[in-house]
Amino acid sequence: MTAITHVCNYTVRCPHYKDPEHEVTWKNHVEINKSCEIALNRITKWHGQHAIELIELNGLAIRKAEGVDTYFSVRSDRLKDDGHILVTFKILMDDCDDNTCLEDIVSYLAEDYEKRLAKLK
What mean pLDDT do residues 56-70 have? Predict the structure, then answer.
């Protein structure tokens, strides 16, 4: 039996403001933490929510929460020495950033995660 030895949580907040002097982009609002409490909270909350599968890209099945512009995903992968990593993804969209494309965000997150995963394997 293996154990979860690593936890990683991604949160992307699309800006809800416009600033004519600075570029407003989700790329400035990507947070990564390793909190087990946040991961368990997300999994527990999402498990009970009705959601639809919206997009699958690079091994991530992204679902949209019902009634809000929030998207989420959970993934796990095996590591060397019988370890496992549990990773959660949460994307908070906003209409103020007209150039935001969910597929771009998901691609970025998937690539970043794969790079981090490769360092652990």
Answer: 85
* Measured CA distances, 55 to 11, 41, 44, 92 (Å): 17, 23, 21, 15
Burial 84-98 (b: 16+ CB within 10 A, else e): ebbbbbbbbbeeebe
Query: Residue 57 belongs to what domain range?
Result: 3-120
Supply angle C-alpha 47, 36, 13, rounded to 5. 70
**Per the confidence metrics, is the pTM higher than 0.90?**
no
Question: How far, in Å, CA of 11 to CA of 79, rounded?
Answer: 23
Q: What is the pLDDT of residue 59?
A: 80
